[in-house]
Amino acid sequence: MTQSSGEITGNVLFYKSPEPLNREQHAKLALVHKDKPYGFAAAGTAVPLTVSEFAPAALTFPVIFAGDDKVPLAVMGLNQAENLFITADGAVEANVYIPAYIRRYPFVLANDDTQNRLIVCIDVGSDLLSTQGDTPLFDAKGEPTEYTQNCIKFCDDFEVERLRTDSFVQILKDLDLFELKKAIFQPQDETGAPNGEPVTVAEYFGVSEEKLNTLSAEKLKELQENGALAQIYAHLVSLLGWDRLINKTMLLQAQTGAVN
């Protein structure tokens, strides 16, 4: 999986210059060790999630579904190109869950259009890779190092989880459980009383509790047994996180004097 001359297509969030991993081209590349390695994600407002991540992510972010495909996303900011949990220098707020989509960087699996298969790629535009780095991608014999093998396995495991996520979303579609939801901010005065009209800060797809509650006992039991029900409830609980995002955004604006 480490050599390919195939062509890759499509844009992937965070990846500037993805190339198929190749022992000749990338023989001297190595990982650069950083205490704060996540600067590339500082503009990641919404980051893809796999279904197995719903519960840990729900402790920090709203977990929503977006677009016609109802792609699950962790909402990490309210404004475009803003991440409220990862700073520009790559630091992460304490006790914040980092989605696997971010943790796999600078590796990724991509479609090889010439052979209709997935190939391992790296983002050669990443500042986490350098010929002066600390952990080589290949050893002196041109074989993938343990680090690279672990990264490839992580990408393979991520792909398995992505397919599981597609199946989970399809279940929700088949049961017609999605509805359009809104995240609402109610301005308040210094006493905490409502002050002004409510403001819609986001529109997204989520599971309708009303539709969920009308499912038959047999269907609910099926969702429980296949694990989908627990993930649905993790998603619903996560929506309490909108208030946290709104409060963090207001605090940031107050500190910087930013005006949107």
Q: What are the SSEs and their pairings?
A:
Blueprint: E1 18-20, E2 30-31, E3 46-48, H1 54-58, E4 63-66, E5 71-75, H2 100-103, E6 107-112, E7 117-123, E8 129-130, E9 135-136, H3 146-174, E10 178-185, E11 199-207, H4 209-213, H5 217-225, H6 228-238, H7 241-256
Radius of gyration, Cα only, in angstroms? 21 Å
Number of helices: 7
Counting DSSP E segments of at least 2 residues, the number of strands comes to 11
Low-confidence stretches: 1-10
Largest sheet: 3 strands, antiparallel
What is the terminal-to-terminal distance? Answer: 46 Å
Looking at the chains present, what oligomeric state does this protein adopt?
Answer: single chain
SSE succession: EEEHEEHEEEEHEEHHHH
The domain count comes to 1
Mean pLDDT: 91
Which percent range fits the helix content? Answer: 25-40%
Helix/strand/pairing category? alpha+beta
Structure description:
The protein is α+β, with helices and mostly antiparallel strands and 260 residues long. The chain has one domain. Helix content is 30%, strand content 20%. The protein has seven helices and eleven strands. The chain has helices at 54-58, 100-103, 146-174, 209-213, 217-225, 228-238, 241-256; strands at 18-20, 30-31, 46-48, 63-66, 71-75, 107-112, 117-123, 129-130, 135-136, 178-185, 199-207. The strands form four sheets. It has a three-stranded antiparallel sheet with strand order 1-7-6, covered by helices on one side. The chain has a three-stranded antiparallel sheet with strand order 8-2-9, with no helix packed on it. It is globular, with a radius of gyration of 21 Å. The model is unreliable at 1-10 (pLDDT under 50).
